């Protein structure tokens, strides 16, 4: 990464952020960025997570403010917050490459690596979404499509079961030897609400033991045929310490800001050009010539888009005020 950015000038990471933000903003999307909060787990993917604020947080928030693009800070992990908002219908989709997004309950996800630190994009889409917007192919995943093409058993709690068994962000190992097909077999055989319910049980140990007994029964002999085959060695390997209730809680009850406490979404507005120009000169050290030439290709299209959308919102698309007399072609 450093070799690729040696010629990009002052603050190459912020420069890249600016260009990618401008590219996203050139489409009829309402963007909201979400940052990880200080209640995020201290260990992720086997590494200790620094709870100190990333150096890019403050300058990128200033850039977003100048773009009049909204941002929020999650209580814990950004993915969990966005999944909650997506599930509640506040937003249409989440753009992230984090594999646990469906475990947190997201319904629609766009996959494309465009940002490289803990900030994720929440998108409110227009009625038409092209799978090739941004001039690049993106992948659109929905829970309903996954259920249709993979398995109808894949509800929200089923994703928790798979993450616990196969390993995820909070426990890389999961149940050693349990692959995705085996975990999917367990999902077909078991009540996937059992793990979440165990966290509310008056006797958590007993509830988890009941889950282990049922899992061991299906793994050992596959009595329903839904496993595909038996896994006796895996059944014998189930220990009293699996699954870890702390890991279950991180998935089933992540730290999130309640929906009622989130700021109300503002109508989209164009960038504040004077504020953005002054900020970019400060952060990136661009002179006036560089600033104008860059704005011409990256920022003006955003302004034009907002003006067009404002005209469409204030006038009927079929009226002469917007498009003039209509003609057949």
Mean pLDDT: 84
Assign the structural class, choosing from mainly alpha, mainly beta, alpha/beta, alpha+beta, or little secondary structure: alpha/beta
Radius of gyration: 24 Å
Which strands sit side by side, in order, in the main sheet?
4-1-7-5-6-8
Low-confidence regions: 1-9, 113-120, 124-135, 325-329
What profile does the largest beta sheet have?
6 strands, mixed
Protein name: PIN domain-like protein
Domain XPG-I: 65-135
GO molecular function: 5'-flap endonuclease activity
Organism: Suillus fuscotomentosus
Q: Which SSEs are present, and which pair or pack?
A:
Blueprint: H1 12-25, E1 30-35, E2 43-44, E3 47-48, H2 57-66, E4 70-73, H3 78-87, E5 93-95, E6 108-111, E7 119-124, E8 139-142, H4 143-149, H5 156-166, H6 180-189, H7 194-198, H8 204-221, H9 232-237, H10 245-252, H11 273-284, H12 288-298, H13 300-314, H14 320-323
Parallel strand pairs: 1-4, 5-6
Antiparallel strand pairs: 1-7, 2-3, 5-7, 6-8
Can you walk through the features of this model?
With 329 residues, the chain is α/β, with parallel strands linked by helices. It has 2 domains: 3-148 and 273-311, Rossmann fold, CATH 3.40.50; 155-252, no CATH class. Helix content is 43%, strand content 9%. The protein has 14 helices and 8 strands. It has helices at residues 12-25, 57-66, 78-87, 143-149, 156-166, 180-189, 194-198, 204-221, 232-237, 245-252, 273-284, 288-298, 300-314, 320-323; strands at 30-35, 43-44, 47-48, 70-73, 93-95, 108-111, 119-124, 139-142. It has a 6-stranded mixed β-sheet with strand order 4-1-7-5-6-8, with helices on both faces. It has a two-stranded antiparallel ribbon with strand order 2-3. A hairpin with a 2-residue loop joins strand 2 and strand 3 (47-48). Helix 1 (12-25) runs parallel beside helix 2 (57-66) and helix 2 packs antiparallel against helix 11 (273-284). The longest helix has 18 residues, at 204-221. The termini are far apart. The model is unreliable at 1-9, 113-120, 124-135 and 325-329 (pLDDT under 50).
